[in-house]
Automatic annotation (TrEMBL), chain A:
It comes from the Bacteria. Keywords: Cell inner membrane, Cell membrane, Cytochrome c-type biogenesis, Membrane, Transmembrane, Transmembrane helix, Transport. The chain crosses the membrane at residues 20-38, 44-65, 97-118, 124-151, 158-179, 191-214. Required for the export of heme to the periplasm for the biogenesis of c-type cytochromes. One of its GO terms (biological process) is cytochrome complex assembly. It is a multi-pass membrane protein. GO terms for molecular function: heme transmembrane transporter activity. It is found in: Cell inner membrane. GO terms for cellular component: plasma membrane. This is Heme exporter protein B. Belongs to the CcmB/CycW/HelB family.
From TrEMBL, chain C:
It is found in: Cell inner membrane; Membrane. This is Heme exporter protein C. The chain crosses the membrane at residues 21-44, 56-80, 92-113, 133-149, 161-180, 200-222. It is a multi-pass membrane protein. The keyword Magnesium does not apply. One of its GO terms (biological process) is cytochrome complex assembly. It comes from Nitrosomonas europaea (strain ATCC 19718 / CIP 103999 / KCTC 2705 / NBRC 14298). GO terms for molecular function: heme binding; heme transmembrane transporter activity. Belongs to the CcmC/CycZ/HelC family.
Length: 219, 204, 247
């Protein structure tokens, strides 16, 4: 059943490619603005790189949260999901996975290119990309709760950022920490383990909390 | 058998209805009528379990539907006034996905067959965006041909349908009722059903 | 004598009970505040390292304690409201949020005032201050979500979810920030620095903490009463109250 949801959302994304590309370009533009604001000094850029890329990834992932449930809500599909004999948590998991495939994965793939703009060494580029690979699914999973709670509310887009961004902080800290550790020549395995732990915890709790939130918002 | 006991529904500061009790037996149809804003859709949403009544209970064969959960959703089909039709998907994709969500997966041929029966032959591969309101409605209603559930809760199923389509839907409903199914629906168009027991519930 | 506790779970009985309790807690709050401030500003000795400016911790520390404690209490009541569908507990949770946010803000503000003479800067990215800032964001999130929802039942339940998610995340956020801080600054300057606190200092701090407690209870009861009145304005007992039949 999860596959049906993922397949459908990917199909919809394929037919509405512009939505996917907007998120990606938002990410690219935000990251590219910083050197213009701070100056092109390579040594400063290298220090900032992981933080800038990660914050831009948080914002890009968050901005696309509005789309996660809103179109299903508007056309009545969400009602069908709530009334489906299939567990709602499983359906929500499918929605979060497809959100990640559509928004998270392009960010992960684009990150090394942006890292080059910031003069990052190859090893740091790899660590940055891997940290995003581990961290962005957590963003989609946590974000799903916020998206479900703000469903159909006026000003939902701004509200979701207030709800969700503070919860993203641990991911941000350990994601950027991994890159810094690698540039400092220290091990970054611990960071990846912690990011992995965040991922596992959010896989267990987030679909459940999101399903509960959807029932509240639709009730 | 679906039984509602002393239902009360409050929206904001407005009491839509209270002390509402009725039951629908196998083979019976219930029309829910009343002016706009009288709570018809709210009642249907309570009956299918999307929202909770402010007071009262709903039983399916003697058990509270809240306790039944998935077991209730297994025997019930709800079609809201929003059909759950995606503009960017074709009629066939829409039907297959809504059936899969409802727990009965069908293949492409079965979907094409159902769409043909409901009068959409030759339009199966068109994206829903180019279909007319009535045709989109038909795509949503095609699910009734495939589903094996007993209880159907339909919110304004006849909106935007032409005379031929209304006759078609009438036939589908009669078929389900003859099998011992139950239908609860809102409509502004009266359907004349001679062979089955029909209840009228008018909300004011 | 048996007390029917469930009686007080109805908003109406709680309204009157709270009304009777408010004066006592107000008096207690004022007494503790006067005693606590006297100790803080006159009785407690001047710190030989930090001078007079350290006295701000008599407000800063109790406010910080209370801000964290109130979030947990708020999440607890909101969770009870969600699990057992008890309206009163959800109303109490909504009543707690502004007071909690106020103390979080107070802790941040006094932290800045303390930081200026101590560190020569209004803000440092100290682990405690950063966590307090994030806690402030969490309070704001809870209140904005509830404010955006018109249907009170949905507001209660949605608020409960975000409060519970917040409570699960607070330890994770706290340890992340702690870890981040040690990585970036080495040993951070902590606000309660002196290892052996003078007895006068400690007692002053505890009495101020009690004052803050009493103040919170008073504010929460007052706000809960207002929320009850607003939500129940169409019920018979509120109309009777308006006509002066009760009380």
């Amino acid at each position: 059943m999860i596959w049906w949801i993922i397949k459908r959302d990917l199909l919809l994304a394929m037919r509405r490619r512009s939505d996917v590309l907007t998120t990606l370009f938002f990410f690219v533009i935000v990251v590219s603005l910083f050197p213009l604001g701070v100056g092109p000094e390579a040594s400063i850029l290298r220090i900032m790189a992981s933080g800038v890329v990660w914050v831009a990834a948080l914002l890009a992932s968050m901005l696309s949260l509005g789309r996660m449930f809103s179109s299903d809500y508007a056309d009545g599909t969400l009602e069908q999901m709530l009334l489906s004999p299939v567990s709602l948590s499983a359906l929500v998991m499918g929605k979060a996975i497809s959100h990640w495939l559509v928004t998270g994965v392009p960010l992960v793939l684009m990150a090394p290119v942006l890292g080059i703009q910031y003069d990052l060494p190859v090893e740091a580029l790899i660590v940055l990309t891997l940290s995003l690979l581990l961290g962005t699914p957590v963003l989609s999973l946590i974000g799903a709760i916020g998206a479900a709670l703000t469903l159909g509310l006026r000003g939902g887009g701004v509200l979701v950022s207030i709800l969700v961004l503070p919860l993203y902080i641990p991911v941000l800290i350990f994601g950027t920490g991994a890159v810094e550790a690698s540039t400092a020549g220290m091990g970054f395995g611990a960071h990846f383990s912690i990011l992995g732990a965040f991922l596992l915890v959010s896989i267990v709790f987030s679909p459940w909390a999101t399903a509960a939130s959807l029932r509240i918002s639709m009730g | 058998m679906l039984t509602a006991r002393n239902l009360e529904c409050i929206r904001g500061e407005h009491r839509l209805f209270s002390n509402l009790s009725f039951s629908v037996n196998p083979g019976e149809l219930m029309f829910v009528g009343g002016p706009n804003g009288s709570g018809k859709t709210s009642l249907l949403r309570l009956l299918c379990g999307l929202s909770l009544p402010d007071d009262g209970e709903i039983y399916w064969n003697g058990t509270d539907i809240r306790k039944l959960g998935v077991d209730y959703r297994d025997v019930m089909t709800y079609l809201g006034h929003l059909g759950g039709i995606k503009d960017d998907l074709t009629a066939i994709e829409n039907l297959r996905i809504s059936c899969a969500l409802a727990g009965c997966e069908i293949d492409e041929d079965q979907a094409a067959d159902a769409l043909g029966q409901i009068g959409l032959a030759g339009r199966e591969m068109l994206p829903a965006r180019v279909l007319s309101q009535g045709q989109r409605r038909r795509v949503a209603l095609a699910r009734l041909l495939v589903t094996r559930t007993k209880l159907w809760i339909l919110d304004e199923p006849l909106t935007a349908l032409d005379v031929a389509a209304v006759e078609l839907i009438k036939g589908i409903l009669e078929h389900n009722l003859a099998k011992g199914g139950m239908v609860i629906m809102t409509t502004h168009q009266e359907l004349v059903m001679s062979t089955v027991t029909v209840h009228h519930l008018v909300l004011s | 004598m048996t007390i029917n506790w469930f009686k007080y779970a109805s908003p109406a009985s709680f309204y009157f009970l709270a009304g009777r309790m408010i004066p006592y807690f107000s008096i207690a709050a004022i007494i503790f505040l006067i005693v606590g401030l006297y100790i803080a500003f006159f009785s407690a000795p001047t710190d030989f390292q930090q001078g007079e400016a350290y006295r701000i911790i008599f407000i800063h520390v109790p406010a910080a304690w209370m801000s964290m404690f109130l979030y947990v209490v708020m999440a607890f009541w909101a969770g009870i409201g969600l699990a057992f569908n008890t309206r009163l507990s959800s109303m109490v949770a909504s009543a707690i949020a502004p007071t909690g946010a106020m103390f979080t803000f107070l802790a941040l503000w006094t932290g800045a005032w303390w930081g200026k003479p101590m560190w020569g800067t209004w803000w440092v990215w100290d682990a405690r201050l950063t966590s307090e800032l994030i806690l402030f964001f969490l309070y704001i999130g809870f209140m904005s979500l509830q404010a955006a929802i018109d249907d009170p039942r949905r507001a209660d339940k949605a608020g409960a979810i975000i409060a519970l998610v917040g409570v699960v995340n607070i330890p994770i956020i706290y340890f992340s920030v702690q870890w981040w801080n040690t990585l970036h600054q080495g040993a951070s300057v902590s606000l309660i620095q002196s290892p052996k606190m003078a007895t006068a200092m400690l007692s002053g701090m505890l009495i101020m903490a009690l004052a803050v407690w009493m103040y919170s209870i008073v504010m929460i009861l007052i706000r809960a009463r207002l929320i009850i009145l607003e939500r129940e304005r169409h019920t018979a007992w509120v109309s009777e109250l308006k006509e002066g039949v009760l009380e």
